[in-house]
Amino acid sequence: MPLGKKFFSQSTVDLARALLGKYLVYGDLRGKIVETEAYLYHDDPGCHASRGMTPRNAPMFGPAGHTYVYFIYGMYHCLNVVSGKTGEGEAVLIRALEPIEGLALMQKRRKTAKAKNLCSGPGKLCQAFGITRKHNNLNLLEGSPLNGGLHIANSREKPEIVCTTRIGLSAGQDLPLRFYIKDNTFVSVF
DNA sequence: CCAACGATGGTCT
DNA sequence: GACCATCGTTGGC
Predict the structure, then answer these.
(1) Is the entire prediction scored with pTM above 0.85?
(2) Cβ within 8 Å of residue A147, ≥6 positions away
(3) Does residue A114 reach within 7 angstroms of strand C, measured from its CB?
(4) What tens digit of pLDDT does each residue of A152-166 get?
């Protein structure tokens, strides 16, 4: 079942935790979300929105449940789920998936057969799912005709969650805003 | 094994 | 012109 407005309306930290165990679905591709990071509007210098709205980060200030996809290091994309109040730039970065369906296409795009190397990082999972800037600012909510089929699907899993500091930042490194499913081997960094 | 580094281009100052 | 929410490769042990 696609998740709707109520699910995306919880606080950004709660959403980052609630997304663990849910599914990212796009066409015939499906992956279980196993690692996320929260980016907050207040007191978080690591957040793209921390110095105000710019053309790039504008989707973060929009409604919860939209996507925020950005291009990084000249060759990779990262997928976020916008969260928090409209007008305050917050989002959850999807950092890793456990591949569930559509492995053959993921393997072709990632140029590797190893399941653990298909979606175990924010750039990797966008490559495996074919997510680019064209998928920026799309509505993930159920019933949206313009979302291209990209959505988050529910599950009953209640995973055991580990919390650590976030990966790869040069500001806000000390905040405990990274979450992953305990003992899941598809996480990007242990 | 793992630390270091280069690729590569959009974004903001 | 500097920075960057990354990744694959390289070269040392």
Answers:
(1) yes
(2) A138, A139, A140, A141
(3) no
(4) 999 999 999 999 999
